[in-house]
Amino acid sequence: SPAHIKARCAVYPGSDTHRFPVPDDKVDWETDWPQYSPVNYTAPAVLKKPVWADLEIGAFCPQFNLLDGSVDRRSHEGQYRIQNGKPLNPHGRTGLEGRGLLGRWGPNHAADPIVTRWKIDSSGQRFLHADSKLPVLQFVSIKRLDCGEWAIPGGMVDPGERISQTLQREFSEEALNSLKASDSEREKIQKRISELFSSAGLQVYIGYVDDPRNTDNAWMETVAVNFHDESGDSVSELPLQAGDDAGQVSWTDIDSSLALYANHSQFLKTVAEERKAHW
Ligand code: RP5
Ligand code: MG
Ligand code: MG
């Protein structure tokens, strides 16, 4: 896989902390680099010991590469190395050690629901792209509140939670604002949504995410699954409403020119290819 890029962004998100610059040819841990001197940074919110975060390494010894109680510390990418008691990013150096904004040492597991429908023209037919002559897919995208970038409405897997549950819950929270809905409204949303999400989704990605929050010792991993509303009468009819860590939500045409958070556009490329849609 190509060397991570966003995981080497100059300024660490939500801080004034500058990463130690890591050139492409020094990303690999196997490349000897005695001058490497990453800055140490763990966000104050993480050090405050919230329920979703680990403690500092020392007295606290997580079971790396294992299912540690209800926290899954296994990587989708195989065994990761431990150095001085700390896990090493499987994609190499990032210029920053510690956990940054991430709660877990090692893999921080997320799930990304990619909800799609066909773009329809004014006569109700599938819209064909002028260049590719292929039908255009649209997906539900959200504008992240933390950085303002458009993204898939994904989120963290709670301890012990099934991925299928995370996919549905995060979509409901971020794109349908279920957290702010009344009990009866929430029930209605869940009914509609669980039908689509219980259909066989198409898994388009599993593994490391090139996320700007990644560090040498903590990184994002995800399972991205496509749920497709083929006839356009399922989720397509639900009113979208941004919620939780989403500021805006919209149906967005899938196209190679999309600039999205992390490596999300890579996941969409696979969706387009698998569904024989325009890219
Ligand atoms: C990305 O961060 C994942 O692909 C997922 O979309 C997201 C999960 O983090 P939060 O949205 O909870 O911040 O790496
Ligand atoms: Mg969320
Ligand atoms: Mg999210």
What this model shows, in words?
- With 279 residues, the chain is of the alpha+beta class.
- The chain has a domain at 109-274: Nucleoside Triphosphate Pyrophosphohydrolase (Alpha-Beta Complex), CATH 3.90.79.
- 16% of the residues lie in helices and 24% in strands.
- It contains 4 helices and 13 strands.
- It has helices at 44-47, 163-175, 183-198, 264-274; strands at residues 39-42, 67-68, 71-72, 82-83, 86-87, 96-100, 106-118, 137-144, 150-151, 155-156, 202-208, 218-228, 246-253.
- The strands form 4 sheets. Strands 7, 8, 9, 10, 11, 12 and 13 form a 7-stranded mixed sheet that branches. Strands 1-6 form a two-stranded parallel ribbon.
- A hairpin with a 2-residue loop joins strand 2 and strand 3 (71-72).
- Helix 2 packs across helix 3.
- The protein is globular.
- The structure holds 5-O-phosphono-beta-D-ribofuranose (RP5) and magnesium ion (2 copies).
- The site of one magnesium ion has 6 residues, from helix 2.
Please, what is the average pLDDT? 94
Number of separate helices: 4
Bound molecules: 5-O-phosphono-beta-D-ribofuranose, magnesium ion
CATH class of one domain: Alpha Beta
Assign the CATH superfamily of one domain. Nucleoside Triphosphate Pyrophosphohydrolase
Q: In sequence order, what are the helices and strands, one letter per element?
A: EHEEEEEEEEEHHEEEH
Query: Would you report the number of β strands?
Result: 13
Which descriptor suits the 3D outline? Answer: globular
Cα(first) to Cα(last) distance is 21 Å
- CATH architecture group name of one domain: Alpha-Beta Complex
How big a fraction of the residues is strand?
Answer: 15-25%
Organism: Danio rerio
EC number: 3.6.1.13
Catalytic activity: ADP-D-ribose + H2O = D-ribose 5-phosphate + AMP + 2 H(+)
Enzyme class: hydrolase
